[in-house]
Amino acid sequence: MACKRGALIVLEGVDRAGKTTQCNRLVEALQLSGRPAAMMKFPDRTTTIGKLINSYLESKSDLEDHTVHLLFSANRWELVPLMKKKLEEGTTLIIDRYAFSGVAFTSAKPGFSMNWCMNPDMGLPKPDLVLFLQLNPATAAQRGQFGTERYETSSFQQIVQRRFEELIADTSVNWQVIDASQSIDEVHENIKRLSVKAMNAAEDWPIGELWT
Ligand code: ADP
Ligand code: 2DT
Question: Which of 35, 63, 83, 186 has its CB 3.0 to 4.6 Å from that of 182, i.e. a possible disulfide?
Answer without folding.
Answer: 186
